[in-house]
Target: Ubiquitin carboxyl-terminal hydrolase
Amino acid sequence: MSVESDAGVFTYLLDNLGVKDVQFEELLTLEPESLASLYPVYGVIFLFKYPTDTPYTSTDKPLDGDFDRDAAEHLFFAAQTIQNACGTQALLSVLMNKEGEIDIGEKLREFKEFTMVLPPEFRGEALSNSELIRDVHNSFAKSSPFVDETQRSGGEPEDAFHFVAYAPVDGKLYELDGLQPAPISHGACAPEDFPARVMEVLQRRIARYDLSEIRFNLMAMVRDLRIRAREIGDAEMLAREERKRRDWQFENALRRHNFVGFAGAVLKGVTESKLREGDGAYAKWIEEATARTSHRIDTKKKGGGGDDVEMEG
Model:
């Protein structure tokens, strides 16, 4: 099960991991100024379509930057060994490397101390065996009550998406991707230069895709914006951020519930009601619904709209 790419989901992942005074904020532009305005910024998480037409991993040289094979000795980097957990792992890749700047909580500090003496592949195994991390991930993981038809033989394969983390650590900009054999260095990078430097890297990455591919998502790990609002005395900003937290809490509560049974019961009740009416009421209801659907499709085509584009986040 994968975690939904949503700032509210990732913020509450942080909260449930015991992290204090940190949140995620979604970015709608690759302009460095938009990221710099959120200072302090600890790192970003980037979601993209996993390429299937070209090799993704390499043991020699990545498509951009250079492997820093010694970096894992002093920064937290774990090989991805858990399927569909790349979102949580990307979050931890930023978080664990910002201890000192961020209060990561006692349990994560203990986990980091235990795993830093291990090689990256065993750190990945330790992630899968951590009860705290597993339970928090599963509490926000997307699941579906339906059979995945795309996995049946003869069907179109479902698009796969992947999360990677970028963070300034020890004076360098690192790309932390558990599917790669080592951290990827993108050169020298002071914390104040991070917004401009990481946007350059992301722009090059996106440029490798076809122009029609727009399914990307970018989130920044930043200090809780409510703290800034209180520090500068901005009551309007504070009210906006408090309202955002309430909205996130409500949306996350909905995500944890499966409404398929409820929807099925409603549909069954409506259908039985139409059948009891007699005089062809059920057939007329179906005919009217089909006509309305056809009308919406025709209107959409005339208006120049195509099929809806799937967006993550």
